[in-house]
Amino acid sequence: MFDDKEPTPARVIHALGLQKKVNLLSGTKLTGVNQLESMLETNIAIAGEVDPRVVNIETQPLTFDLNTGREYKLKSVARAENHDRGYKPWFYTPDFRFTLYDGTQIFVEGKGTRWLEKHQDFENVIVAVRGLGHKIVLVTESLFSKDLVRNLRLLKPLVSSTEELLEWSHSHTPEDKPVSAKQLLLENSMTQRQLFLGLLSGMFHCDLSAVPLGPKAMISFGNGETSHLEVLPL
Q: Is pLDDT of 21 > 70?
């Protein structure tokens, strides 16, 4: 069932009569069920869910008129207000607005490399948004390796877990060098769920883009540091 409190995106994702596949995503940092236009946008949102720096994610939060800097909650309102005025606005709706733990807000835009090659003037949009005093980052599919996407999707369901990690003795496992996930689990009577929770808490560290989180994944003991979860250039 869809959440009645889900936010209204600033622009309509698919117009009447246009068949366009969308991805539906919910999470602990998203409000309700959100429609995302591409797999790249979905991967960005999932990365934001896993990233401990991010506390809130809004999809298509507003529409800018980059000519004036004016902000509109809905693109339809922006169009209606500028209809028949003899003025051509420069509308832009960011894919996301991320709020970080320190209150900083950053717009995040996802665009494919092929699309950018055909629309090289899109850089003007990024420059214009920054010129208005906002922070914005552009993310392409090149950031997301197949293994990284898989690992982020494995970790995302546990982001909201309040389960406390049990203490265990790892006297059989050296702390000063990485060990395989298989060895770590066997020698310390751990479950895969505990391993994933440990990665989210910083108890363990792993290069999420290097290899799938399986028996051969190399795991290091951490000290609470979670940079391995910070894959977005925020």
A: no
Two structure tokens written together for 81: 């207000």
Instruction: Kindly provide the residue ranges of all beta strands, DSSP E only, lying in 63-150, ordered along the sequence.
Output: 63-65, 70-72, 91-92, 96-100, 105-110, 135-139
Residue holding tokens 């807000």?
105
114, 143, 172: which is the final residue of a domain?
Answer: 143
Domain count within the chain? 2
User: For residue 34, which of 44, 42, 24 has the smallest C-alpha distance?
Assistant: 24
CA distance 82 to 167: 62
- For 198, the enclosing helix (H) or strand (E) is helix 192-201
CA distance 94 to 61: 7
Beta-carbon count within 10 A of 14 CB? 12
Q: Are 68 and 88 in contact (CB under 8 A)?
A: no
Question: 3-state DSSP call for residue 52?
Answer: coil
User: What is the domain extent for residue 43?
Assistant: 23-143
Pull the structure tokens for residue 216: 């051969």
Domain end residue (candidates: 143, 168, 193): 143
Residues 188-217: pLDDT tens digits? 888 999 999 999 999 999 999 999 999 999
**152: helix, strand or coil:** helix
Question: Which residue do the tokens 């090289």 mark?
Answer: 120
Report how far residue 98's alpha carbon sits from residue 200's, in angstroms, rounded to the nearest whole number: 19
